[in-house]
Amino acid sequence: MKRKKKLRFIYLQVILAVYIIMFGVVLSVGRNVLYSSKKSMLSILNENDFSGSVSPEKAQTVLIWEGDETGKDARTEMTAILSQMRIPFTETEASGFTEKDLSGRNTAVLAVTDLNLLGSRLTSLLNWVIEGNSLLFLYSPDNEAGFIAIADRLGITGVGNTLSKVEGLHFTSSIMPGSGRDLAVSDPYRSSLEVTLDDECEVFLEAAGSSQTPLIWRRKLGDGTVVFDNLNFLEKAYRGFHCAAFSLLNRDCIWPVINGSTFYIDDFPSPVPEGDSQFIQSEFGMDIKDFYTHHWWKDVYNLAKKYNIRYTGLVIEDYSGQVSGVFPSNKDITRFQYFGNMLLREGGELGFHGYNHMPLVPENFDYLGMYDSYRQWVSVDAMRDSLNELDRFCRELFPEEEFHVYVPPSNIISEEGRALLAEDFPQIRAIASLYLPDDNDVSYSQDFTVTEDGMVQTPRIISGYVLDEYMRTAAMSELYFHCVNTHFQHPDDTLDTDRGAALGWTELFRRLTDYVEWLHNALPQLRNLTGSELTGAVQRYDKLQIRREEDDNSIHLSLGGFKDEAWFYLRVNDGKPGRMTGGTISQAADGLYLVKATMPEVEIEIIR
After folding, report:
1. Which of 129, 213, 322, 563 could tie 207 with a disulfide, CB 3.0–4.6 Å?
2. How far is CA 464 from CA 367, 396, 490, 495, 499, in A?
3. pLDDT tens across 171-220, in order?
4. Helix (H) or strand (E) holding 11
5. Which among 110, 11, 5, 16 has a CA at the least distance from the CA of 63?
6. pTM confidence score
7. How far apart are CA 324 and CA 69, in angstroms?
8. Bridge-partner residues for 192, per DSSP?
């Protein structure tokens, strides 16, 4: 009996030794993975690379808004939408609106809660539509006398006594890329008018489920067009839906987009946590280090291979809380090289996340009680010293990389930290933080733009592996508005219950895979870009100037600030595109086309 136990013990020792040797070989191979810097498919440009200008377009759109809370929110959203679509517009508060505001215009956007404020001017507005112009109701007015009096002209045959609780969104036609699946609404409430419509209305979006409340519809009014946006979610995550409503107004609508998809991995490479996780142990029976290598990285790596994703990894050198003094170099570099070299070999790239995970904020910065473990830096000099050490560390390990992208730890950065990057680290050309504002004022929220100091803003729209319905809604919205996808994940998302760890990696990875598959099928033309390539794409989008000239059978674009390429969405509501000079065109959804301009003068034939 003792002999058998001894043999069994020796057998287990041999297995363990073999496993350790094999694992060491894997890391050794990874350390010696050869990579060469691959040519970027889209370069980052300098200010003087953009040339030419075009005379500005005359504003043909007027935004009419009310000064109540809803009207102000609507004004904020629509101003951002029109500006980023490069639609010139004027605006006026409803109390001061006159018929003169419609002179020379062909499109009006109405963001007014109490239509009684307009009095007889409402009739004048509708008569102007009848004459051949277009009107968008950006949100539902109050169900009062002024609205009831005109409801039939909007195609409304009946209005309920209460608002409808919209728990999901269902597209009746595929007007947006990826709109083949319903979307659940997070935290639904009674938000939309409960209406019935006449047969002359064309409904594009309705509430999912039994109510089928119309949410976006279009109707002819005389020789003009009315679009009614009954969605009433006036927030950044839904800008693409309101953009879609606006694009349905006239015969054609064309606006610039980015056309790019970027997947970031924050805290990668970085020191791997020691020890075990109850979720990893339960599912795989191994510690965190082995899980990262044999399951997490293997899965996300193979997913990228399948869908031609080139990750942008953001390096953390050390997880210390040090915010002053001399910043020691991390000598344990094996896993940095293993993961980093594999990512680079597949065409990915690396950027900066931080020497440690302390956001670049000074001593007087207030975390508002949100981050107990975070500290403030003792000085800007200390911030600079930590980044210099990170820069030295990364260049030593990955000498062919250029490190153009910075991601703030926890998406937090101060003005001082931001200025430090712009002034002292010229190789950093982009800051990638958050697109959607969070529930506090600590995180750094951005738009896709270039700031005055030349720093490119490339915000991340969605994150993690749970990928709830709100994130999916925001993703679809931005796929229409900017033709862009940006997602970030952390390896330790798999360890944190607040980020879905209790679901287990198998389920989390299934959700990530499902999202990537949806994105790929929604818009196959969407370009997979690294973080620096997205930086170049946002530059080209931001610097572009547009002059549109349209007639019955064609659209002509004159482009200023043009450099090598520009991308557009074209919605054709009457006809379809024909021949094009100066670029190429492909269908993206029902009536929606993705246009690539390769020349500063573009002509698109429209077959009516």
Report:
1. 213
2. 23, 30, 7, 12, 7
3. 999 999 999 999 999 989 899 999 999 999 999 999 998 889 999 999 99
4. helix 2-31
5. 110
6. 0.94
7. 45
8. 164
